[in-house]
Amino acid sequence: MSTVKDSRTIVLFDVDGTLTKPRNRVTTKVLAVLRALLQVVAVGFIGGSRIGLIEEQLGAEILKEVDYVFAENGLKTFQHGELLASTSLLEAVGEAKLQEFINFCLHYIADLKIPQKRGTFIEFRTGMLNISPIGRNCSQAERDEFEAYDKEHHIREQMIEHLRERFKHLNFVYSIGGQISFDVMPQGWTKEYALRFLPEKEYSRIVFIGDKCFEGGNDWEIFSHPRVEGYAVQNPGETIVVLRKLFPQIETLLDPAVLAA
């Protein structure tokens, strides 16, 4: 029996913690479910990372197959694998203000006493700064250790509070994502930014699935947006469960052995 695609519905997915384990490759099971879903509705990925990192996790082929990829929260937007739009944090804020902010962050991190510090504490992206107290060069084991330490000592939350107070004039927003870092960007440049590419006349239903859907998490703004039907998950397995409930049509498009894996 053929399936009619509902092109006015789009499902948007966070990447880390939703489609993959943090910074890990996508599984063949998740890819199979995504390809089945693509026969039913439109699909998009939305992540805070650069397009290269999203490609590493999900693979180049699926990025060309889906309708949209919103890298860096949509500040680099791709439609069917082609760059659609791009904007820059540097253009919006200016070098002088960015340097003032970055210098403060580096001094703050230098004074932190945490179990480990590695390298790449600040990653400059097209539309945001990604700040990691431990440094993005840490190993996976060190990521896991820092995540547990941060849950107890609230290192990222405390740093964000200092930055909010010191740089009120910059009107930045801060969101915690992943295991080791948080994002900093101008007001309105969180994941809800991507919605401007999905006009209501084209998409009457927008579903979002993410793992950081609490207030302060990097999925919160799009999860709670009035246009969006949001679902919070904790891992890729829960994402598949949600999809099977929302779109039971995918069951007939999948090998039962794939779902049982």
How does this model look, in words?
Its main location: cytoplasm. It catalyses: alpha-D-mannose 1-phosphate = D-mannose 6-phosphate. Keywords: Cytoplasm, Isomerase, Magnesium, Metal-binding. The protein is of the alpha/beta class. It folds into 2 domains: 6-87 and 190-260, HAD superfamily/HAD-like (Rossmann fold); 89-186, Eukaryotic phosphomannomutase, cap domain (Hypothetical Protein, Haloacid Dehalogenase-like Hydrolase, Chain: A, domain 2, 2-Layer Sandwich). It has 10 helices and 11 strands. It has helices spanning 28-38, 51-58, 60-65, 89-93, 95-111, 140-153, 155-166, 220-223, 236-246, 256-260; strands at residues 6-13, 41-46, 68-71, 76-79, 82-86, 122-124, 129-131, 172-177, 181-186, 205-210, 228-232. The strands form 2 sheets. The protein has a 7-stranded mixed beta sheet, covered by helices on one side. The chain has a 4-stranded antiparallel beta sheet with strand order 6-7-9-8. A hairpin with a 2-residue loop joins β4 (76-79) and β5. The longest helix has 17 residues, at 95-111.
Observed structural traits:
Rossmann fold, four-stranded antiparallel beta sheet, globular, Hypothetical Protein, Haloacid Dehalogenase-like Hydrolase, Chain: A, domain 2, 2 domains, 261 residues
